[in-house]
Specification:
The chain has a four-stranded antiparallel sheet with strand order 11-10-12-13. A three-stranded antiparallel sheet has the order 8-7-9, with helices on one face. The longest helix is centred in the C-terminal third of the chain and has 17 residues. Helix content is 30%, strand content 24%. It has three domains: 83 residues, no CATH class; 50 residues, no CATH class; 105 residues, ATP-grasp fold, B domain (D-amino Acid Aminotransferase, Chain A, domain 1, 2-Layer Sandwich). The protein is α+β, with helices and mostly antiparallel strands.
């Protein structure tokens, strides 16, 4: 079964009068020869990059293996051809944009984000003193697969062995009850989908609190914060996860996703993300 997002983008592209193809990274062949035109990129079935006016690059993986090198080569050729690429400038600047890179860029820009510490080798962890409980996260990962709530040092030492050095970070447990998945396309804030912070990420149990609706001022602050984050990472499209810090009474950015899924966002909010991206 195909992913929801490529199918929806194709549907909206066809509605807008475009001819649309879906190409998997694993189908792409890259050849370098000795002729004047050294690079040849074959998309299969006679398709060429130069045939397209707009390209939407998705996550570069195949059965768990990274295909970022193929993505970068394709992007380089598209730039040479002068083609419009959604998030092209962002992918060129940051081929990989994990939680560590994001945190550094956000903090450097003065945008509120979750503090963290990371080390280039396991030696750094030996002398590191953490306050428990804490959160351990992988540099990459979706749907919380690499996120763990750690309650004691012994558990932390055991868990660190699972992660590759330089690809894990430790964060404090934030006083978050609820958070939002927000979508920005261009300079337009499309909306926000509210979530309850789960207990396994340090959130309170369901019976201990109720979700609240924020007033217009706070939601406008959320809107402009997301637009600023999108501009910082030069995104034409992105999903941004933002939580409400109960202690500081302000918004804090969790993560930016340049190939964010939007199946449930479209279904729950009624916002047509695919149409906005194509237009």
């Amino acid at each position: 079964m195909r992913e929801y997002e490529p199918v929806r983008l194709k549907e909206e592209g066809v509605k807008a009068g475009y001819k649309v193809d879906i190409v998997k990274y694993g189908q792409i062949e890259v050849r370098v020869g000795s002729e004047k035109r050294r690079v040849k990129i074959d998309l299969g079935r006679g398709r060429k990059l130069g045939d397209y006016d707009l390209v939407v690059l998705r996550a570069a993986s195949k059965k768990g293996s990274s295909m970022v090198s193929v993505k970068v080569v394709v992007l380089s050729e598209l730039r040479r051809l002068g083609k419009k690429v959604i998030n092209g400038s962002s992918f060129w600047e940051w081929p990989l944009l994990g939680k560590i890179e994001q945190g550094v860029e956000l903090a450097g820009a003065g945008i509120p984000t979750i503090p963290f510490v990371t080390f280039g080798s396991r030696l750094g962890w030996k002398g590191f003193e953490s306050t428990f409980p804490c959160m351990v996260k992988g540099r990459f990962g979706s749907h919380g697969r690499t996120v763990k709530l750690v309650k004691e040092r012994q558990e932390l030492d055991k868990l660190i062995k699972v992660y590759k050095s330089g690809n894990v970070l430790i964060q404090p447990v934030m006083p978050i009850k609820q958070w939002y998945r927000c979508i920005v396309v261009g300079d337009e804030f499309l909306g926000a989908m509210r979530h309850r912070q789960k207990g396994r990420y340090g959130g309170l149990e369901r019976e201990e609190y109720k979700l609240v609706k924020f007033n217009k001022k706070k939601m406008n602050e959320l809107k402009w914060l997301c637009i600023c984050v999108s501009m910082l990472f030069m995104c034409d499209y992105c999903g941004i996860d933002v939580g409400w810090d109960e202690e500081k009474k302000g918004w804090v950015v969790f993560e930016v996703n340049r190939t964010a899924q939007f199946k449930y966002f479209e279904k729950r909010t009624g916002v047509n993300v695919s149409e906005a991206m194509v237009s």
